[in-house]
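Example 3.2
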Amino acid sequence: MLDIDEMGQQEIQGFLQQVGYGHLGCIHEGKPYVIPMHYYFDDPALYLFTTEGMKTHAIDANPEVCLQIEEIHDPLHWRSVIVNGRADRLTEQPDIDHALQFIKEHNPTLSPAINRTWVDSWGRAEVIAVYRLHPSEMSGRTTEGVSSQS
């Protein structure tokens, strides 16, 4: 039988620092909407980087969101964290610059997207949006905890 353990808050924070990618759940026009999302964890907040579109409209309309982060090695070895909270769009340029600097330092693969402006297939200019997620609750589960190793 698979032994699943609760992760402690310190373990959850370390996991959030390490991974940097998850799935954001929100409500779009009354329906659940889940999208892949890069983030940066700067205790106690998480910063989300995206471009203007359906997800930003959903978050702006209902900022209560859920971010799920996982690491799966195989069906018997995995970790998963859920962060519930409120996502507020950063509107002050110093706050945006501060968050983007962290994102660039910790996730350099996003630098090309951050540093350029492009036009999508409908002729709309892509606009960057950065959110600060204030966690109200964080929980985690793992198959690699203390009781799993006994």
